[in-house]
Amino acid sequence: MKDYLVFDLETQNSFDDVGGRAYPHLLKISVAGVYSYRQNKYFIFEEDQLDEFEEMIKKTELLVGFNTKYFDNAVLQPYLKEVDLKKVPACDIMEDIANVLGHRLSLDAIAKATLNTKKSGHGLDAIKYFKEGNLDALKSYCLDDVRITKDIFDFGRKYKELYYNEKGSDKKLTIPVYWDDYNIEFKNKPGGYFSQKKNDNEKNLSGDEDKPKKKKEGFAVSQTGDNYSLF
User: Fold this and answer.
1) Cα separation of 229 and 231, whole Å?
2) Per the structure, how many domains does the chain have?
3) For each of the chain's 231 residues, which pLDDT tens digit applies?
4) Domain with 182 in it: what CATH number?
5) Are 32 and 44 in contact (CB under 8 A)?
6) 10 Å Cβ neighbour count for 210?
7) Greatest C-alpha distance within the chain
8) Is 149:66 a contact under the CB 8 Å cutoff?
9) How far apart are CA 75 and CA 196, in angstroms?
10) C-alpha–C-alpha distance, residues 153 and 159, integer Å
11) Three-state DSSP class for 184?
12) Which of 146, 148, 223 is nearest to 189 (CA)?
């Protein structure tokens, strides 16, 4: 069965570290966060586990992300042995917004106006976490960006529009989105913005005693409400 994937990457280096924006392939991936609609699970992969992510991409009908066309894809492509990302159907939310408005908006700006939520930090924080060896914070940050991206995508598919605030005011402006082609049903009901029911039997990742032991394969989590839980 085919799938839709929402993903986000964090990098080991900044553009300043590698000599500028002309060298995205030198940034190197620290972690990749992924949500699978078919499995209704979140996954997190470290650099040496990206072959597992590639296997997921080979089975997907759509890759969803934010600024993926010119950033994430350029960073990810050197790691892929069989997949050409230019040939994979994709929805780059930032590009779709820019095509309508004529300018870019940040993920945080869309999240605040559309979902009344915000990012848990900045991309430079993720690089800091990596260099400090704080993998728990790094993975949590990455998965939070995946969750926000997915919730924005779900909102746009359902209501056919997104929102942002007019510069210097709280006035909300509308961005029409044309994602009707992406409205397919999956067996598992997606979690996140449209599904806030919590399962008391699942363990919260924030609890020290519930943290999973490190293992070689990528580690999967499911999301119920706003908590990431071991699946």
Assistant:
1) 6
2) 1
3) 689 999 999 999 999 999 998 999 899 999 999 999 999 999 999 999 999 999 999 999 999 999 999 999 999 999 999 999 999 999 999 999 999 999 999 999 999 999 999 988 887 899 999 999 999 999 999 999 999 999 999 999 999 999 999 988 889 999 999 998 887 666 554 444 333 333 333 333 333 444 344 444 555 554 433 333 322
4) 3.30.420.10
5) yes
6) 12
7) 49
8) yes
9) 33
10) 10
11) coil
12) 223
Q: In whole angstroms, give the CA distance from residue 69 to residue 88.
A: 11
Strand partners, 163: 174
Structure tokens at 167: 């510069």
What is the extent of the structural domain holding 178?
Answer: 3-230
- Helix boundaries (H) for the chain: 15-18, 50-58, 73-76, 93-101, 107-115, 123-132, 135-159
N-term to C-term CA, the chain: 20
The whole-angstrom separation of Cα 154 and Cα 87 is: 24
